[in-house]
Amino acid sequence: MLKRIKMRKRTLLIVAIFFAVAATAFAQRGGRGQGGQRPDPKVQAKTTADTWQEKFGLSDEQRTKVYDLLIVSSEKQTAKMTELRASGTMDREAMTAAMAKMQEDQDKELKKIFSATQWTAYEVWKKENPPMQGRRGGGGQE
């Protein structure tokens, strides 16, 4: 009887350790089920272009131009982030400045694609939907 109780305690302890390790691993991945990886840029660009077409009334031609721009912007962003990480400094201010510059460049191109009415609607939408960076919680940052 005593042997059975010890065996059950040991089994319970092993199961508890397993769940603790699994929970830690899941939390480190960001809970996305993809290992915390960014979504495929082409899928993300398609989703965004489709959403904007509906929201801002883009023509099919405008939607295609927006999609192409989003792909190019994503590639530039990935290359710049890789370059900054490779430099070894990981300077947050430099990264933030680089991202802001790329967003500004992207907006200049979008303004050429959108009509005046669409551009106004886009600017309103941007104010209502700020980027997710810095709003993930943890560490008391807002």
UniProtKB/TrEMBL annotation:
Name of the protein described by the UniProt record: DUF4890 domain-containing protein
Highest taxon in the source lineage: Bacteria
Signal sequence coordinates: 1-27
Native source organism of the sequence: Roseivirga echinicomitans
Alphabetical UniProt keywords: Signal
